Amino acid sequence: MNKGGLARRIVNVALVAVGHLRGGLGYVTILASCILASLSGSAAADAAALAALLGADDGGRRHKKSYAVGLVAAGGIIAPVISAQHRLCHLCVAAGVSISKRFSPESFRA
Predict the structure, then answer these.
(1) What are phi and psi of 11, to 5 degrees?
(2) Which of 39, 29, 35, 32 is nearest to 69 (CA)?
(3) 3-class DSSP assignment, residue 20
(4) CA angle, 91 then 26 then 16, to 5°
(5) Could you tell me which residue, 103 or 19, shows the higher pLDDT?
(6) Which is deepest, 9, 33, 77, 106, by most CB within 10 Å?
(7) The whole model's pTM is what?
(8) What is the DSSP letter of 8?
(9) CA atoms 39, 41, 44, 50: torsion sign
(10) What percent of the chain has pLDDT over 70?
(11) Facing residues of 72 across strands?
């Protein structure tokens, strides 16, 4: 995510969405963590991507190290909660497919 620039783009989207609020960098970290968690589902990958980005210079805006570590730790906990099933539920809603029919045992039989 870091090498390809995806993590940076996600942080930029979060920065545009909530960066203007008071304490915005904290909100940006948590929102970016939620987005990264929904993509990867891994707390370690999420924390690694955010730690690398928060350590870099953000145009003069930086967290204190202790604050950044706390935000990354709190954001990393979100990843196991936001799992693949949540993404599938959102896809079902967007596609107009019944969630209960999609996750019924009959739908998994070949």
Answers:
(1) -65, -40
(2) 29
(3) coil
(4) 60
(5) 19
(6) 33
(7) 0.68
(8) H
(9) positive
(10) 81
(11) none
